[in-house]
């Protein structure tokens, strides 16, 4: 009667004999694995720049093709997000981001995740660099995203305590305190090129969300530039970004920041009634 | 012919009583198979072979629960060896049976370490078959969801268990060392990822958008003779990944894993209530932690409304209790989101009424800045702020996922419990966010009632100096403007204002009505009506 029915599986994986009773199979191939030999089903036979990534984790190795294709770290993270073997590459990549003033949140989160899985491999120096880069990515919430993954006992140590304080000042608009604190911790932040400019850009971002016209002193405090240097900075902004310098009622200089929908709410209404194209496509058949 | 195979639940009732009695007397005998169980496995096996999804679903959802309730209230089901010969020793069926066997064990009893390890091995074998074999079964979505859901649950449960190191016996520690691959976090993530990739589900969903493939329309089932198992497991694994990443505190990556599923629309994830809730709960929680409050509010509102309207249909479902629990938790999360971002206009009337009933008082306290209560002004405000802080702590602890520490303990150091570490870290970081936004409550209170106010005057009202006020207002702007996944700035602000030198100007933002969408929907509707009218043939009277 049953023989005419199809079996539940047409084709079994290699080495799995359907005649085996279940229990036999469980014991024969699951419980006696060497470390990292059991679960993952991912094959890594790729060459990354100079480093060969060995396929440690697959149960069945695919024959390694001598590929000479090199993968960028970004691609590697996309293809192998849960592979401990890429940890050294990700660490090198953090240093590369620092040197070349680039940034990849995904790669850095991937590294923090691997540290979370194997805390004994954590390098405080690398984590500190990731966090400085995350501060530079403000207003994006990257710094908290990283903290969520870093064990509390690590966060209690230096330089992390200082970095957390710095982040707190930036999150709460305390630019004066931020620059004071940063000045005391030059060794941490100056190791990463572009730090000052990135924070200044964030300060200008928050100011332009908040102000149509900002007093010169408030701007000076937020970006930590004063006197002649500030005049020079303003000059550039006027030319490149349309800032306008005015005289305030009290005689001080005030700066009109470029209009955005956030400091000129009336600009927002236009975008409110926009209809995305894929909604319009719903009525194409009717219109035709 | 099919009628002969109909599985009659009532037939075994008399035997069941005898069997239940026997179990009470002799205790659990893994080799004893009551007739009703025999009949159950034989029929289930046959329905699976015949790809009768409807019957499989009935037996899986109803009969299995009924039998468990009747015979296996506090003992496991008969061992797989004892039932195997009723089902041709079919390897895959035995894996499926064991999967249910362990699920029942986890739900009703507390699994031993050995059982946890065996269950892991069973999932490994099952997923290996799905990944590397050519499975031709058609299983109900409910079951496939339960597999992924249970897989992640057992992983989480294992991590919690392992982290309680203090009371472990030497034997348990030896087992943990020996089987250090069981429920290993890399293994869990790689299985889910492998299911997503091997099923090519992301490409299928992509092709569906272009009309080249059907997946959602058939609820993932394959009506042309193929199997739905790999595809749908892959689909649910994306939700499994979201959940695992939330348990690890990696909200950004979690949301990324969910991206292929468009949650603004119905989909296969809504075809099973458990998956629908798990998706939105974790999506909403991750949005909250990323400060995308509006996203969180919108989705919580939608699903809470849905649960409110459909709750009664799930009363008999084995998931009912779970549904109610998640329902309560999501109201708590909604209360948090709305306190950070008071935009009641996003919340439906029915949901709002429920919310008021459950958390009205607490939400009032979260947004309370000052009133005519006792004590001097400043200490009163401080007291209210502290009280709000306590409520945030309470709501978060009640509604958050069960965070886990994924790494194994170091067995050589003194054994300490670390099962609370992950939760404490997430709570601490959440509460530091609360502290950062503490001053915004006061600022909101006044901005809502003024259209123009000078910085000096508002600073005076808030009892702070002008530079602190400037900081507070910048904090308000920063915290209410989130960065979305494309890096665009999105305003979540409930009160719009800008500063002009030293004057604050508040802008009355009228709710933007989406006429465009409304007209589009009406156009489609009208077209439908016209088509219907056209189809009516009018008999001419002459």
Automatic annotation (TrEMBL), chain A:
Keywords associated with the record: Cytoplasm, Initiation factor, Protein biosynthesis
**One annotated Gene Ontology cellular component of this protein:** eukaryotic translation initiation factor 3 complex
Main localization, broad class: cytoplasm
| Keyword Heme included in the entry's annotation | no
Q: PROSITE patterns from the xrefs?
A: PCI (PS50250)
Q: Gene3D superfamilies under this entry?
A: ARM repeat, domain 1 (1.25.40.250), Winged helix-like DNA-binding domain superfamily/Winged helix DNA-binding domain (1.10.10.10)
Q: What is one GO biological process annotated to this record?
A: formation of cytoplasmic translation initiation complex
Pfam families per the UniProt record, alphabetical: CSN8_PSD8_EIF3K
Q: Name one GO molecular function term.
A: ribosome binding
State the source organism's domain of life: Eukaryota
Compartments, as annotated in UniProt: Cytoplasm
| Domain PCI intervals | 103-261
Q: What does the similarity note say? A: Belongs to the eIF-3 subunit K family.
Oligomeric and partner information: Component of the eukaryotic translation initiation factor 3 (eIF-3) complex.
Q: HAMAP family per the record?
A: eIF3k
Function in brief: Component of the eukaryotic translation initiation factor 3 (eIF-3) complex, which is involved in protein synthesis of a specialized repertoire of mRNAs and, together with other initiation factors, stimulates binding of mRNA and methionyl-tRNAi to the 40S ribosome. The eIF-3 complex specifically targets and initiates translation of a subset of mRNAs involved in cell proliferation.
Q: Could you tell me what this protein is called?
A: Eukaryotic translation initiation factor 3 subunit K
Automatic annotation (TrEMBL), chain B:
Q: Which Pfam families match?
A: Paf67
The name on file for this protein is: Eukaryotic translation initiation factor 3 subunit L
Ranges for domain PCI come to 299-513
User: What is known about what this protein does?
Assistant: Component of the eukaryotic translation initiation factor 3 (eIF-3) complex, which is involved in protein synthesis of a specialized repertoire of mRNAs and, together with other initiation factors, stimulates binding of mRNA and methionyl-tRNAi to the 40S ribosome. The eIF-3 complex specifically targets and initiates translation of a subset of mRNAs involved in cell proliferation.
Self-association or partners: how does it assemble? Component of the eukaryotic translation initiation factor 3 (eIF-3) complex.
- What's an example GO BP annotation here? formation of cytoplasmic translation initiation complex
Query: Its family?
Result: Belongs to the eIF-3 subunit L family.
PROSITE patterns in the record: PCI
Where does this protein reside within or beyond the cell? Answer: Cytoplasm
UniProt keywords, alphabetically = Cytoplasm, Initiation factor, Protein biosynthesis
- Would you name any one GO CC term? eukaryotic 43S preinitiation complex
Q: Which GO terms describe its molecular function?
A: translation initiation factor activity
**Sorted alphabetically, which InterPro entries does this protein's record hold?**
eIF3l, PCI_dom
């Amino acid at each position: 009667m049953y023989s005419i029915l199809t079996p539940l599986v047409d084709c079994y994986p290699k080495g799995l004999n359907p005649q085996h009773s279940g229990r036999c199979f469980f014991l024969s191939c699951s419980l006696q694995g060497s470390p990292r030999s059991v679960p993952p089903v991912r094959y890594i036979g790729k060459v990354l720049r100079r480093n060969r990534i060995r396929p440690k984790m697959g149960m069945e190795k695919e024959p390694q093709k001598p590929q000479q294709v090199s993968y960028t770290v970004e691609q590697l993270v996309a293809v192998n997000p849960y592979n401990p073997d890429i940890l050294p590459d990700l660490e090198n990549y953090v240093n590369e981001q620092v040197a070349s003033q680039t940034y990849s949140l995904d790669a850095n989160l991937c590294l923090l995740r691997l540290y979370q899985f194997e805390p004994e491999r954590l390098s405080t120096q690398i984590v500190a660099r990731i966090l400085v880069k995350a501060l530079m990515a403000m207003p994006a919430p990257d710094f908290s995203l990283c903290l969520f993954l870093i064990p509390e006992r690590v966060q209690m140590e230096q330089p992390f305590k200082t970095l957390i304080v710095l982040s707190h000042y930036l999150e709460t608009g305390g630019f004066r305190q931020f620059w004071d604190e940063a000045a005391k911790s030059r060794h941490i932040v100056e190791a990463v090129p572009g730090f000052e400019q990135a924070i200044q850009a964030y300060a200008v971002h928050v100011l332009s969300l908040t102000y149509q016209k900002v007093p010169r002193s408030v701007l000076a405090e937020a970006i930590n530039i004063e006197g002649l240097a500030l005049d020079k900075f303003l000059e550039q902004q006027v030319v490149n970004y349309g800032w306008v310098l005015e005289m305030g009622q009290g005689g001080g200089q005030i700066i009109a920041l470029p209009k955005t929908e956030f400091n000129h709410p009336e600009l927002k209404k236009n975008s409110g009634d926009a209809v995305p194209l894929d909604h319009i496509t719903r009525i194409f058949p009717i219109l035709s | 012919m099919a009628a002969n195979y109909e599985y009659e639940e009532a037939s075994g009732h008399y035997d069941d009583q005898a069997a239940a009695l026997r179990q009470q007397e002799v205790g659990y005998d893994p080799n004893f198979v009551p007739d009703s169980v025999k009949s159950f496995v034989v029929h289930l096996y046959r329905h699976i072979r015949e790809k009768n999804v409807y019957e499989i679903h009935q037996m899986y959802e109803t009969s299995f629960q009924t039998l468990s309730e009747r015979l296996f209230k506090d003992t496991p089901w008969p061992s797989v060896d004892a039932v195997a010969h009723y089902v041709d020793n079919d390897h895959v069926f035995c894996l499926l049976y064991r999967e249910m066997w362990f699920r029942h064990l986890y739900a009703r009893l507390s699994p031993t370490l050995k059982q946890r390890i065996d269950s892991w091995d069973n999932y490994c074998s099952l997923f290996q078959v799905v990944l590397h074999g050519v499975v031709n079964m058609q299983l109900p979505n409910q079951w496939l969801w339960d597999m992924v859901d249970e897989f992640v649950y057992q992983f989480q449960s294992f991590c919690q268990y392992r982290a309680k190191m203090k009371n472990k016996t030497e034997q348990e520690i030896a087992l943990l060392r020996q089987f250090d691959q069981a429920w290993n976090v890399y293994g869990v993530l790689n299985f889910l990822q492998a299911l997503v990739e091997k099923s090519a589900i992301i490409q299928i969903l992509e092709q569906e958008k272009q009309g080249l493939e059907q997946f959602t329309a058939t609820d993932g089932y394959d009506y042309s003779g193929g199997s739905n198992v790999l595809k749908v497991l892959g689909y649910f694994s994306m939700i499994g990944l979201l959940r695992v990443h939330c348990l690890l505190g990696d909200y950004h990556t979690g949301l990324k894993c969910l991206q292929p599923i468009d949650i603004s629309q119905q989909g296969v994830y809504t075809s099973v209530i458990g998956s629908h809730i798990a998706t939105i709960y974790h999506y909403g929680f991750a949005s909250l932690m990323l400060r995308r409050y509006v996203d969180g509010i919108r989705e919580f509102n939608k699903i809470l409304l849905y649960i409110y309207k459909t709750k009664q249909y799930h009363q008999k479902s084995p998931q009912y209790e779970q549904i109610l629990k998640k329902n309560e938790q999501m109201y708590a999360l909604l209360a948090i989101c709305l306190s950070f971002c008071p935009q009641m206009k996003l919340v439906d009337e029915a949901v709002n009424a429920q919310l008021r009933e459950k958390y009205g008082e607490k939400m009032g306290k979260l947004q309370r800045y000052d009133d005519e209560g006792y004590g001097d002004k400043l200490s009163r405000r401080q007291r209210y702020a502290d009280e709000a802080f306590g409520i945030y702590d309470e709501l978060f602890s009640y509604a958050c996922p069960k965070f886990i520490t994924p790494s194994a303990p170091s067995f050589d150091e003194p054994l300490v419990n670390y099962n609370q570490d992950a939760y404490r870290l997430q709570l601490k970081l959440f509460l530091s966010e609360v502290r950062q936004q503490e001053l915004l409550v006061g600022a909101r209170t006044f901005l809502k009632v003024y259209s123009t106010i000078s910085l000096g005057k508002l600073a005076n009202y808030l009892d702070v100096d002008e530079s602190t006020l400037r900081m507070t207002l910048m904090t308000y702007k920063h915290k209410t403007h989130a960065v979305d996944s494309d890096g665009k700035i999105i305003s979540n602000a409930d009160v719009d204002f800008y500063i002009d030198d030293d004057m604050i100007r508040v802008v009355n933002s009228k709710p933007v009505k989406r006429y465009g969408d409304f007209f589009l929907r009406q156009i489609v509707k009208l077209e439908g009506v016209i088509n219907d009218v056209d189809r009516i043939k009018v008999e001419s009277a002459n």
